[in-house]
């Protein structure tokens, strides 16, 4: 079950959704070889809140997810699922077609078969330049501060990463 509400008022947007999902025979990975195991019954419930503010050339966004993901057989936490996640973003649109975004992602701790995985925070930067006729070039730096973190026990994650691309969106200027 999921229910949501969204409201726009002048230069703001609010949304909230509440979810409560029961899953039979959830597949979860555990063990040294990432063996697939069956969780007979699982329940994931929580809420997500998002707020956007548009002020002139600035855009601000905050997104918060709080959840409780449990194996119903013993009320243990489901592996690799944080109870909380927060994303904060600020962006600026320059008059000459350049858009810059700064994003911070904060993720709470998770459990895995080898114990707790600590929470982490990442910062990403995106730049996009509009060339016109629906064409833009963009560049992105993920994990700007080269933070060490894990999504699963003993699995490496990328350090600082660089991306570049060209985007085409028909029907836009």
TrEMBL record:
UniProt entry keywords in alphabetical sequence: Cell outer membrane, Membrane, Signal, TonB box, Transmembrane, Transmembrane beta strand, Transport
GO CC, alphabetical: cell outer membrane
GO biological process: cobalamin transport
Domain TonB-dependent receptor-like beta-barrel: 2-144
Membrane-related topology note: Multi-pass membrane protein
Localization in the cell: Cell outer membrane
Similarity-based family: Belongs to the TonB-dependent receptor family.
Name of this chain's protein: TonB-dependent receptor-like beta-barrel domain-containing protein
């Amino acid at each position: 079950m999921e229910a949501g509400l969204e409201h726009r008022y002048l230069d703001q947007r609010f949304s909230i959704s509440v979810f409560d999902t029961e899953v039979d025979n959830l597949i979860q990975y555990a063990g040294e070889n990432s063996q697939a195991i069956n969780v007979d019954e699982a329940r994931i419930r929580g809420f997500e809140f998002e707020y956007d503010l548009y002020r002139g050339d600035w855009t601000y966004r905050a997104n918060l997810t709080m959840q409780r993901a449990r194996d119903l057989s013993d009320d243990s936490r489901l592996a690799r699922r944080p109870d909380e996640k927060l994303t904060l973003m600020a962006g600026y649109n320059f008059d000459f077609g350049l858009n810059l975004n700064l994003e911070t992602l904060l993720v709470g701790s998770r459990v895995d078969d080898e114990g707790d995985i600590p929470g982490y925070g990442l910062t990403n930067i995106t730049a996009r330049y509009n060339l016109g006729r629906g064409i833009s070039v963009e560049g992105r730096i993920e994990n700007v501060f080269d933070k060490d973190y894990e999504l699963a026990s003993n699995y490496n994650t990328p350090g600082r990463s660089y991306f570049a691309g060209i985007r085409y969106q028909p029907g836009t200027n």
